[in-house]
């Protein structure tokens, strides 16, 4: 089977960073894409993404070492050839019979396109950063370099475990403290939470330890960050 995956190690930054001009619209569009995918693929645990400025600062300082553990590096806003590759990869790994391969590849590669649809992700931070995967290293069948114009980090998932949840009605497998909003899992409103019995405790807690800096160097991102910083010197 034709492979549509590639390592982050071949990627370099080629332009100065910039801010996302309209975070609200950017996030709204991405969440609509996640909702549409959840309905089409019958994903019962697709969470709505919320913007996290801390993740933005983490990208700017190249200080994340959580890839594959509690976060994922996500390249977005692809130009034509990278966008074609993303669509091919999503199509190639769509369906129950491809789920095992998707999870296996997810733990080895940057999953162009599929990263956007990882069900368990809840937060995102992005900057404008042009990133290039050289023409000489793109998969067969693609004739130009892959170019993305946005660099993001999504949390809290790093290993693709949320893909293991069996298919079902969108929004039917939301975690404690979340409810279905037309196919996306969103936090229960404060007014609804206040009506819960006093002895009912939520299991959806917040870890006070930063998910971006705990533990030792981890996998592809730690190596790729070094390479990316070197690339930016030239």
Automatic annotation (TrEMBL):
Q: Where is this region: Disordered?
A: 185-214
Show the InterPro entries listed in the entry: CAP_sf
> Does the keyword section mention Protein biosynthesis?
no
Give yes or no: UniProt keyword Ubl conjugation: no
Which portions of the chain have biased composition (kind: Polar residues)? 190-201
The UniProt keywords, alphabetically, are: Signal
Q: Signal sequence span per UniProt? A: 1-16
What is the official name of this protein in its record? SCP domain-containing protein
Look up and give the organism this protein is from. Answer: Caenorhabditis nigoni
């Amino acid at each position: 089977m034709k492979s549509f995956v590639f390592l982050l190690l071949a990627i370099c930054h080629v332009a100065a960073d910039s801010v996302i001009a309209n975070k609200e619209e950017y996030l709204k569009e991405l969440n609509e894409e996640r909702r549409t995918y959840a309905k089409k693929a019958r994903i019962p645990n697709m969470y709505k993404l919320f913007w996290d400025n801390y993740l933005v600062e983490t990208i700017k300082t190249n200080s994340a070492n959580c890839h594959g553990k509690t976060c994922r590096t996500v390249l977005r806003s692809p130009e034509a050839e990278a966008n074609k590759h993303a669509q091919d990869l999503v199509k190639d790994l769509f369906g129950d019979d491809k789920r095992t391969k998707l999870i296996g590849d997810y733990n080895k590669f940057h999953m162009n396109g599929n990263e956007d649809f990882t069900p368990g992700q809840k937060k995102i931070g992005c900057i404008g950063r042009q990133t290039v995967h050289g023409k000489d290293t793109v998969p067969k069948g693609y004739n130009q370099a892959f170019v993305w114009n946005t660099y993001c980090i999504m949390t809290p998932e790093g290993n693709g475990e949320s893909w293991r949840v069996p298919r079902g009605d969108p929004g039917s497998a939301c975690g404690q403290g979340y409810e279905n909003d037309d196919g996306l899992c969103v936090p229960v409103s404060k007014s609804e939470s206040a009506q819960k019995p006093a002895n009912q405790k939520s299991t959806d807690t917040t870890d006070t330890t930063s998910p971006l800096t705990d533990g030792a160097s981890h996998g592809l991102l730690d190596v790729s960050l070094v390479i990316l910083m070197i690339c930016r010197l030239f």
